[in-house]
Amino acid sequence: MKQVHLTLTEQTPLTQDVFRLVLQGDISSLTRPGQFVNLAIPGFYLRRPISVCDYELTNPDGTGTLTLIYRAVGNGTRALSRMKPGQILDVLCGLGNGFDLSRAGAEPLLVGGGLGIPPLYKLARELKASGIVPQVVLGFNTKNEIFLYDEFRALDCPLFLMTADGSAGNKGFVTDVMVKLSYTYFYSCGPAPMYRAIEKIATAPGEYSFEERMGCGFGACMGCTIQTANGPARVCREGPVFRREVIQW
Amino acid sequence: MVNTQVTLSGWTLDNPVIPASGTFGFGYEFSEVYDLNLLGSISLKGTTLAPRFGNPTPRIAETPAGLLNSVGLQNPGAEAVANEEMSRLSRVFHKKVILNVSGFSKEDYVGAVQALCRKDMVGLFEINISCPNVHGGGMAFGTDPDSAYEITRAVKAVADKPVYVKLSPNVTDITQIALACEEAGADGLSLINTLMGMRISLKDRKPILKNRTGGLSGPAIFPVALRMVYDVYEKVRIPLIGIGGVSSADDVLEMMLAGATAVQVGSANLVRPDACKAIIEELPHRMEAYHIESLSDIIGGAHHGT
Ligand SMILES: Cc1cc2nc3c(=O)[nH]c(=O)nc-3n(C[C@H](O)[C@H](O)[C@H](O)COP(=O)(O)OP(=O)(O)OC[C@H]3O[C@@H](n4cnc5c(N)ncnc54)[C@H](O)[C@@H]3O)c2cc1C
Ligand SMILES: Cc1cc2nc3c(=O)[nH]c(=O)nc-3n(C[C@H](O)[C@H](O)[C@H](O)COP(=O)(O)O)c2cc1C
Ligand code: FES
After folding, report:
1. Whose CA is nearest to atom 2 of ligand 2?
2. Mutation pick for ligand 3 pocket among A46, A237, A238, A242 (CB with most ligand atoms within 8 Å)
3. Measured between CA atoms, how close is B156 to chain A, in angstroms?
4. Is B143 close to ligand 2, i.e. is its CB under 6 Å away?
5. Which CATH architecture has domain A101-209?
6. By the 8 A CB rule, do B287 and B4 touch?
7. What gap in Å lies between CA B144 and CA B171, rounded to an integer?
8. What is the pLDDT of residues A217-249, one digit of tens each?
9. Catalytic annotation on B131?
10. pTM exceeds cut of 0.90
11. How far apart are CA B302 and CA B306, in angstroms?
């Protein structure tokens, strides 16, 4: 974990309320896909946790580019969406454990729903870089909520798009594709109902990324603790990614 | 050179800045950020006799200039704190700590304090009679002078270090509780703990916290805490540790003028991991700006001539 000041270089609307935010500066504290950052937004007391969608170290001194994708849902993220290139953000960077790439096996599956999709992008890139081609299943509610699809397509992995209303890709849920696939391991990020559906049908071990309301994001306040098979675990520190078998559903 | 030293019941601290219980864990998270040894001391996470998971999530809700928490005293229990947490912390922190102890009965408090006795690393015990999170628990002791008296006496009888009682602000007259604790033999008082509050989600039409209510902390409560320290200082002779919304060196000075000998910084650590370090570094400059040579000279300074 490192407190850094990053420069906003891009703020692009991807859908009506989803934005891509690109930041530049010291990102040396990031170690794995699936980690998150905690952003200070002027005017709000608590920071806002957002998953790392992508990052690229561009200099040996640890500086580089950090990409986040977020939905403006409340006052804090709406204020964030009004910030402009050139502005400086106070960021706690490199939080949480991230995905465990060592468990992928030969044929991992990435399953994302809605705003859970962003962290899977860097994961897919890292897996590809290590010579493993993941299969990717993305679920959205409807066509005009889709983002990041073209970027995933450019990775050239087997890619399945599902929408709940059938307005793009295939009609249905991510689990409708999952049951037809074989995979060595799965990585999932999305809403809780999606996790419960996956739990019923998954045929391999895997891991899920969790969300909780956070006071600090780095393990100090015990605000985000959930009960796991290994005892109490802080979503911000021992998580946000937990293996299937330790979660108490 | 200005002098930032202060003395709590015979224990001299390099400076009056202490991270508050529950906002600093057992220290390690922050040792990644700065050298903990620049702190005056550390008040460790509230410890109970038995391990506690605490309340279900959500445990945190944002407020204007602060937050609500309903963590519910999550901790690994007195035994684990005495044997594991403290020895881990002693590798990175070489000063004495404050042990914050909570309980749900007199026996709980006494048992926890006994389990934590005979530790060189302990500067003093801070007895939390005010945690508002646990149903029928800590709350009762801190809101009733007789219960506060009883717990203080019981703990004093077994503790091998000075006993500071941490007061709840959720009372009509905090000075009555303060006097009861002093009469029972408390060596000092810490104040204040969090103020009971609530937030409701407009979307879900129900309280955000699973526990429904939680304790308010942060800059929002600074003036309330300051007033309570000021009032209690008028009534008791024992030293006070001022707590509540402190976020800057100026806040530290203000708290000390109201009557605090030392100051704890809570929520500020959560949003700014280097908050205490920044305050400690700022302190000598602010002292110079206000022509303060020795910090201990200004304790209760706001009471003179008023
Ligand atoms: C580890 C983690 C990763 C996340 N990654 C992303 C992401 O990549 N993209 C994205 O769009 N969103 C993500 N979220 C959710 C995001 O943090 C919330 O949408 C955001 O905090 C809402 O803030 P607000 O001020 O707009 O909403 P408000 O409802 O006004 O916020 C009030 C308070 O509640 C908290 N809060 C509200 N909703 C959530 C939530 N779902 N999770 C945690 N805290 C919440 C806020 O942080 C704030 O403290 C993530 C959350 C976590 C915990
Ligand atoms: C997340 C959180 C956990 C806390 N846990 C404890 C605790 O275990 N014991 C205790 O005496 N006070 C606890 N407190 C209260 C603080 O120590 C402090 O009294 C209060 O937050 C006011 O100070 P602040 O405004 O600087 O945060 C907690 C506060 C917060 C925010
Ligand atoms: S948010 Fe503070 S411990 Fe996880």
Report:
1. B22
2. A237
3. 29
4. no
5. 3-Layer(aba) Sandwich (3.40)
6. yes
7. 9
8. 999 999 999 999 999 999 999 999 999 999 998
9. yes
10. yes
11. 7
